[in-house]
Design goal:
Elements (H helix, E strand, L loop, with lengths): L22 H58 L5 E5 L2 E5 L17 H19 L14 H24 L6 H19 L5 H36 L6 H27 L12 H21 L1
Antiparallel strand pairs: 1-2
Helix pairs in contact: 1-2, 1-6, 2-5, 3-5, 4-5, 4-7, 5-6, 6-7
Length: about 300
């Protein structure tokens, strides 16, 4: 007896045609490359940001310290004729620094300190776009139901508006009293932090407060300190007597920068410690308390 055997049909196999890319694999590959590029950009820009900030803040505190030393030494020199030079030892050598009342060299020989501040701010803004404005880290649906575009507009407005409010306050009657201005600043920081925490994610709220303070510091350098220095150098080069208030204005803004620097550094570091900072139920109180501690630390450093 003959039996016929018919094999079960094989499942249909689908082959990509030669030269034809699988769309899913291609999309996954693009995502991986994009993610890798994004991570490298984040790393490199963060590297520039941290190093530029080290140079900027270091210079600011160094010259603030020098001013304090000269204030004491010049007072002693007037009383007993002792030297008003600041002597230092570093890197295997001795250094002496004197504060001059007039410019005795050409303007082209004067060393300016400006690019460090600009590089710190620019790299910080790029990081803000990489980490928050082009990702989902900016908003939290449980906090506020707003679009990414609206959130970005609020963030940029906070940075620009913070500078305007600060600058007007410094030039008003508030700026004539250190204690009154400090109290005003603390209240404004607390109010702004309270508002940001009801619009952004906790992490983004913290970082935007730091970005605003960093913007104020940079604007102080480029819009107030450097223009005053240019006028001083131009007057000295022309043999004219420069307005002493120009130096005083620059010194005041530089002093404010030393007080803002410590809280800004804390806020930047806080992004890595959510339980203790922005993720804490007392996130606002923690922020205000550490701003106060930062100001206290800055005062100690300035007077050391």
């Amino acid at each position: 007896m003959a039996f016929s055997h018919s094999a079960a049909p094989e499942p249909e196999r689908v082959y990509d045609l030669p030269g034809k890319l699988n769309s899913t694999a291609f999309s996954d590959g693009v995502d991986k490359v994009t993610s890798s590029i994004r991570e490298w950009l984040n790393l490199l820009v963060r590297w520039v940001h941290v190093f530029a900030a080290i140079m900027w803040v270091g210079q600011t505190y160094y010259f603030t310290w020098l001013d304090g030393q000269f204030g004491r030494l010049e007072k002693n020199a007037a009383a007993d004729g002792t030297s008003s030079s600041v002597w230092m030892v570093h890197s295997g050598g001795f250094y002496t620094v004197n504060r001059q009342k007039a410019l005795t060299v050409g303007p082209e020989q004067v060393r300016w300190f400006r690019w460090e501040a600009l590089m710190t701010w620019l790299s910080g803004i790029i990081l803000l776009f990489l980490v928050y404005y082009s990702s989902r880290g900016l908003i939290d649906a449980d906090v506020a139901n707003i679009s990414q575009g609206v959130a970005i507009a609020i963030g940029l407005a906070v940075m620009a508006g913070g500078w305007v409010v600060y600058d007007l306050a410094v030039r008003s009657a508030l700026g004539r009293s250190e204690a009154v201005f400090a109290l005003f600043s603390l209240v404004m920081i607390a109010v702004l932090a309270f508002g940001l925490m009801r619009v952004f994610s906790g992490r983004a709220a913290y970082i935007h407060l730091g970005a605003m303070l960093g913007t104020i510091m940079t604007a102080n350098v480029w819009f107030r300190i450097l223009p005053s220095q240019r006028k001083m150098i131009a007057a000295a080069a022309a043999g004219a007597k420069f307005d002493a208030s120009l130096g005083a204005q620059g010194k005041l803004r530089s002093k404010h920068n030393t007080f803002m620097a410590v809280p800004v550094v804390f806020i930047m570091i806080s992004n890595h410690f959510p339980v203790a900072t922005y993720g804490n139920r007392y996130a606002l109180e923690v922020l205000v308390a550490l701003v106060l501690i930062g100001w206290g630390a800055a005062k100690i450093i300035r007077e050391a």
